[in-house]
Amino acid sequence: MVNYRYLGNSGLKITEITYGNWLTHGSQVENDVATACVHAALDAGITSFDTADVYANGAAESVLGAALQGQRRESLEVFTKVFWTTGPGGANDSGLSRKHILESINGSLKRLRTDYVDLYQAHRFDHETPLEETMQAFADVVRQGKALYIGVSEWTADQIRQGQALAKDLGFSLISSQPQYSMLWRVIEDEVVPASKEQGLSQIVWSPIAQGVLTGKYLPGQALPAGSRATDEKGGKNMIARFLDDDVLARVQGLRPVADELGITMAQLAVAWVLQNDNVAAAIVGASRPEQVRENVAASGVTIPAELMATIDEVLGDVVQRDPSLTAASSPAKRPS
């Protein structure tokens, strides 16, 4: 079964392996398979589920809501997000304006078939909306009982500090940050993690397996596996491309002896690695087959000894991306349309 961790400086506990449905539900996999994956997560002890209104333009939320029907709502932790374009893409169909936040939470609740979400997250930072307006809207969502807690995703250290100061003035707190984080992508370590610790947030990290690269199935100098994310034209191909360098892939193969020594798979090693960071509350894992859920859950509770953590660093060397400026680059200067 899956271990629990507190989320930020709050009393909310979430499963350290959290099920996410980006790029899968409502898009890559049929609804019956998606439902089977959700049920496999529940059977394995996962109670925390992450989605977003933009995933498949709302379809991912709908699939998750349907799959969770019949479960005791109080025993689940459901997360969703707001920022990216939804609906037909009108002038106010994206961003973190009061209008978009208040309309989006209502749409998410309807699709998720619930009266509230446990965590509502700003999916990116909105440079076109005053931060005061955004935080006031989140405060109202909390007061209305539509979200119990508020978090952010891919915000910089300074944005987190500014947002938290406003949140506390309004009577609530930011408790989480959702960044990309893996053995290969460590851009949060120098600035975001220290700021989060200082401000009472912890991380719910996405792509801990680097879009599948850290499973070791992509081999240097060889054709991409048929049906893999790297060949998916619906979005996965673009995201994984940054990791498909032969030097990166060769170094990833060098991690096999570490996984073997621990008696776990490469995917489990990748998930366990992010969970060694004491500011990480959960690793988000997705799945296109129920057996993938069961494999990833086995990473819960795994401890990687310090000497093997050092070995991982030596093996990967300079292919690891550490530039903290890449967090800021993930939020567009203008709202998407």
TrEMBL record:
It comes from the Bacteria. The keyword tRNA processing does not apply. Residues 16-315 form the NADP-dependent oxidoreductase domain. One of its GO terms (molecular function) is oxidoreductase activity. InterPro entries: K_chnl_volt-dep_bsu_KCNAB-rel (IPR005399), NAD(P)_OxRdtase_dom_sf (IPR036812), NADP_OxRdtase_dom (IPR023210). One of its GO terms (cellular component) is cytosol. Gene3D superfamilies: NADP-dependent oxidoreductase domain (3.20.20.100). Keywords: NADP, Oxidoreductase. The keyword Oxidoreductase applies. CDD domains: Aldo_ket_red_shaker-like. It holds the Pfam family Aldo_ket_red. Belongs to the shaker potassium channel beta subunit family. This is Aldo/keto reductase.
